[in-house]
Amino acid sequence: MRIDVVTIFPGYFEPLRHALVAKAVEKNLLEVYIHNLRQWATGNHKSVDDSPCGGGPGMVMTPTVWGPALDDVAAGTGPVSTACRLTSAAPHANKPRHDDLSGTGFSGYTDTAWIDPARGEAPCDGDKPVLVVPTPAGSPFTQEQARQLAAEKHLVFACGRYEGIDQRVIDEAAARYRVREVSIGDYVLIGGEVAVLVIAEAVVRLIPGVLGNATSHEQDSFSDGLVEGPCYTKPARWRGRDVPEVLLSGNHALIDTWRREQSLRRTLSVRPDIIDRLADDNALSTDDLEYLAQLADDAEHHS
Ligand code: SAM
């Protein structure tokens, strides 16, 4: 996969030079290029913003800078043609980690549910890069979207600042990109850089070969719709608190049942909306429904 990021703060992306993302770079599973938007700014002050049409507070990022930048990123021309690849800050010297040793194959994802016919997109638009525009006004970013992006060859991220990017940039980019306006949550950040780090990390860990043990993400929160239950390691007793006995039993059927129940219990507690949605979609098993009914009974007894 290739990732291009356009930003006025390239220094924000230092974290991509560390840990698992850097390892993906070292393994040539990922190429990352960070572009300073001001390379496309003209004028003495290299300004990238202007006052909002219609009045109001703040500044808006101008299409006259963003347009040429996104043209060059899509075509690999101008400053993009000579940009340097991001390198790992501390090469891992090919040392396998414990989870590299138990890896299993992973064939990627093919779901096309995220294609937007309103933008005139068809599944065969697959050779256009995806332009991800973080914005609080976008559709909520989910694990499912991370899975879909992980199957892409080329992602481009446009980091907004101030009041955001002139909407015509995003509308016009649809000629060269499949555009995704995404929000990482119902709050407002200062700029898009942190949102891009969040999205990039969620996506990169799902690229086949990045996680040594491909099964580990299959058990993560949201992979089956639910959040994951609690996890434990040694010692078996710590400050008077024991690891749940079942996890030390060696009985994997019992452990699987316990984990599923803990997952249901925690999801019901922190995200009851997910339980409702899975129930509406008939995505809960009879055992799941019986356990949830038992939890409801227990709660009634204790109230
Ligand atoms: N005026 C915008 C609004 O009210 O929707 C907020 C702009 S915000 C101060 C500046 C930039 O931060 C946005 O263009 C976007 O790139 C980023 N940003 C802020 N909150 C975000 C969120 N929840 N998800 C994704 N990006 C966000």
From TrEMBL:
One of its GO terms (cellular component) is cytosol. InterPro entries: Alpha/beta_knot_MTases (IPR029028), tRNA_m1G_MeTrfase_C_sf (IPR023148), tRNA_m1G_MeTrfase_TrmD (IPR002649), tRNA_m1G_MTases_N (IPR029026), tRNA_MeTrfase_TRMD/TRM10 (IPR016009). It is an enzyme of class 2 (transferase). PANTHER family: TRNA (GUANINE-N(1)-)-METHYLTRANSFERASE. Keywords: Cytoplasm, Methyltransferase, S-adenosyl-L-methionine, Transferase, tRNA processing. Specifically methylates guanosine-37 in various tRNAs. This is tRNA (guanine-N(1)-)-methyltransferase. It is found in: Cytoplasm. The keyword S-adenosyl-L-methionine applies. Homodimer. SUPFAM superfamilies: alpha/beta knot. NCBIfam families: PRK00026.1. Its EC number is 2.1.1.228. GO terms for biological process: tRNA N1-guanine methylation. It comes from the Bacteria. Belongs to the RNA methyltransferase TrmD family. It catalyses: guanosine(37) in tRNA + S-adenosyl-L-methionine = N(1)-methylguanosine(37) in tRNA + S-adenosyl-L-homocysteine + H(+). Its main location: cytoplasm. Residues 1-75, 126-276 form the tRNA methyltransferase TRMD/TRM10-type domain. GO terms for molecular function: tRNA (guanine(37)-N1)-methyltransferase activity. It comes from Corynebacterium mendelii. S-adenosyl-L-methionine binds at G160, I184, G185, D186, Y187, V188, L189.
